[in-house]
Amino acid sequence: MTIRVELSRGGPSLSPIVAGAWRMAAWGWSVQERLRWIEQCIELGVTSFDHADIYGNYSVEGLFGEALALRPSLRQDIQLISKVGIKLVSARRPGHRVHRYDTSAEHIRWTVDNSLRELRAEQLELLLIHRPDALMDADEVAGAFESLRAAGKVRHFGVSNFTPAQFDLLHDRFPLATHQIELHPLRREPLSDGTLDQLQRLRIRPMIWSPLAGGALFTGDDDASRRVQLALNGIAQRRGVEPATIAYAWLLRLPSRPVPVAGSRRIDALREAVAALRLQLDADDWTEIWEAATGHEVP
Predict the structure, then answer these.
(1) Where are the domains of the chain?
(2) What CA–CA distances, in Å, run from 92 to 22, 95, 130, 132, 206?
(3) CA–CA gap between residue 110 and residue 180 (Å, rounded)
(4) Is a pLDDT exceeding 80 seen at residue 167?
């Protein structure tokens, strides 16, 4: 049975683990292999797929859409997420002179239209502003969101990597459905900078990118990484699961009820993430990992 979770009141319903496709261009897969990956994700109950226009130097959405076109009926079973607002200097975008952010209404609308063409879809379940833009006009962004929703191109909207104040500014103009942030034992700032407190107050579930610190939770050789590895391994042995499952469970234990984005080509890695949905860490285990990361006991 497929499980969905609602990110906010009246917001999008996504799978509790989201598949991140950002590395797909580097996998070097055939279109049939890409389709099989999508199918295997769905079989695991991972039905939501996270994209951005810039991923793979503007190529990943097209690679995903090409695979999906082999079996169009899958579209009704999945939820598509994309991000907008970063301009890369790229041969694929000859008009981009400098690497910068762009949250103008024109760029948001153009990018959505292009993403839909690349994904071979008629609608995105969720669109996020990828990075905070110092030149962002909140009223202009809200107007772009309204027009995209009215046109049926995007159902829900959110942001990524914003500060609480930046989130408040745009949320004041247009109801945001989620905030995608980086969070793991080696990056704990959202636990104390007001980000998660704000989302819990608003009853908005965050999405978490890089939940395994890009693999540093298991391969990092600095002191903090080594301490976290020992803690994760010890708890995993006691609970009879993989260390990655414990790392995901550490996030899922938070009362803001995060939705992690698991970006891996390995289906076994996605299984380890899904396994965390059936496991709840107690406060002692959670704190043991926190203390390992910080190198000291709670104050």
Answers:
(1) 5-294
(2) 17, 9, 19, 23, 32
(3) 22
(4) yes
- Give the Cα separation of 54 and 244 in Å (integer): 27
Decide if 280 contacts 255 (C-beta within 8 A): no
The CATH code of domain 5-294 reads 3.20.20.100
Catalytic residue set: 55
Q: What is the pLDDT of residues 65-120, one digit of tens each?
A: 999 999 999 999 999 999 999 999 999 999 999 999 999 999 999 999 999 999 99
Q: Maximum CA pair distance of the chain?
A: 56
Alpha-carbon distance of 132 to 122, in angstroms, equals 27
Residue 2 has what pLDDT? 74
Q: Residue 217 in contact with residue 250, Cβ under 8 Å?
A: no
CA angle at 285 for the pair 280 and 287, rounded to the nearest 5°: 120
Distance (Å, whole) CA 188 – CA 194 = 11
Taking residue 66's Cβ as centre, other Cβ atoms within 10 Å add up to 15
Residue 1's pLDDT band (cuts 50, 70, 90): low
Indicate the burial class of 94 (C-beta count within 10 angstroms; 0-12, 13-18, 19 or more).
Answer: exposed
**209: helix, strand or coil:** strand
Reported as half-sphere exposure (CB side, CA atoms, 13 A), residue 291 has a value of 11
| Tokens standing for residue 218 | 């298991």
